[in-house]
Specification:
The chain is α/β, with parallel strands linked by helices and about 400 residues long. The chain contains 19 helices and 8 strands.
């Protein structure tokens, strides 16, 4: 058992659970005190993160998301990955073909997330992968009732303000089905008995609704965990300036909305590094990435260094100056950031070092999808992206 309620004593360590939940790439935990209280009172912790099924899996969807799954696994939390086929159907992913979405969910997408979890130090065999339609078929009327209960406690305007999770602005025309997306997402949480819903910062609005309606409708208030979103590689100077200004403004909502619009996205492949990219593709994409000299705020490549390369790193990160041959070794991300700010590290040299490191980090995924059992899955999803 992961957690015991015997005599109200938890088998988990409250301090370690909170520490794991707050560790980067976490941006927000609502709230640490409530999570600690759940552990201290022996409440079994059940986490989940949900994914739409579409396109190829990039660093944000794969490694950043799975880092938190690995963190929570390490302290004994039960983790779940929700393959949201019906939500993907609502958003007309993969041509709006539900059968295709289900096949990709159980094939390529599941494999990509399992490999990503293994790369970041987690155990995919200790995470439950749940297909949305199978959950709904199992729960039947109970799930439909939960959707209605959530909908009755949520206004239309509130739902429309939450459509950023769909990758759309509030002003865009939505189908009626897309308005059901948010109530369904909230109902998913309680239908699975989840008390740690997890997602990127773009999922925050839906999770806040879950917190607000949870106690009244389902008898408990979940703890929401939101991780960092990586900016796309191909920022232009204007978008980057808007992002930095939004971050420095102190307006967290403005910053979140700005970042959502320019995050790394599989729908914009030039902005994204996919977990199975070849070494040549990695070098090419990194080489073309936006990386202004001396600028450390929201620099896409420094973001990758901070959240991926230096995560769990035991050896120094080495950058070689192409012109002089000088080698600089960095033991922490902070050291690298300071050197880049002082222009002691040139963007071209950083790009070369990052390309090398990412090629090594992603080698297991690349091998799995080009030489191993994942090859047929990758071929299928690439074909679907061409024809749909």
């Amino acid at each position: 058992m992961l957690c015991s309620t015997l005599s109200g004593v938890s088998a988990l360590d409250p301090e370690k659970v909170v520490e794991a939940a707050l560790r980067e790439p976490t941006e927000e935990l609502l709230t640490p005190d409530r999570l600690k209280s759940l552990v201290e009172n022996g409440v079994p912790l059940v986490h989940y993160i949900g994914f739409e099924i579409s396109g190829l899996v990039h660093l944000g969807t794969g490694l950043i998301s799975m880092q938190k799954v690995a963190d929570l696994q390490s302290v004994g939390v039960k983790t779940k990955v929700f393959l949201a086929d019906y939500h993907s159907w609502i958003n007309r992913k993969l041509g709006g073909d539900l059968d295709v979405i289900r096949r990709v969910a159980g094939g390529y997408f599941k494999e990509a997330l399992r490999v990503s979890l293994r790369i970041v130090g987690g155990d995919p065999d200790k995470t439950e992968f749940i297909l949305g339609s199978e959950l709904y078929e199992k729960l039947g009327l109970d799930y439909f009732t939960n959707v209605l209960r959530v909908s009755m406690e949520t206004t239309l305007s509130r739902v429309r303000r939450s459509v950023t999770i769909l990758g759309r602005s509030e002003s865009e025309a939505l189908s009626f089905a897309q308005l059901l997306y948010v109530p369904m997402q909230v109902a998913d949480i309680f239908s699975m008995g989840v008390n740690i819903p997890h997602g990127g910062m773009d999922q925050r609005k839906a999770h806040v609704i879950a917190i607000e309606v949870g106690e009244k409708l389902f008898g408990y208030k979940p703890v929401a965990l939101h991780h960092h979103l990586l900016p796309g590689l191909q920022l232009d100077a204007s978008d980057w300036k808007k992002l930095v200004e939004a971050k420095n403004s102190g307006d967290k909502e403005l910053f979140r909305e700005t970042l959502v619009n320019i995050k790394m996205s599989k729908s914009k492949p030039e902005t994204a590094l996919f977990i199975h990219d070849s070494e040549e593709e990695i070098r090419s994409k990194i080489g073309r990435a936006f990386c202004p000299a001396g600028e450390v705020e929201m620099n896409p490549l420094l973001e990758i260094a901070r959240y991926i390369v230096f995560r769990n790193r035991k050896e120094p990160f080495e950058v070689v100056n192409k012109k002089t041959g000088e080698r600089r070794a960095f033991n922490t991300y902070g050291e690298l950031e300071e050197a880049f700010r002082e222009r002691l590290v040139h963007p071209a040299d950083l790009k070369e070092a990052l390309s090398r490191e990412l090629a090594e980090i992603l080698a297991p995924a690349r091998k799995h999808f080009t030489e191993g059992p994942g090859r047929s899955f990758l071929e299928e999803i690439k074909e679907l992206r061409i024809t749909r």
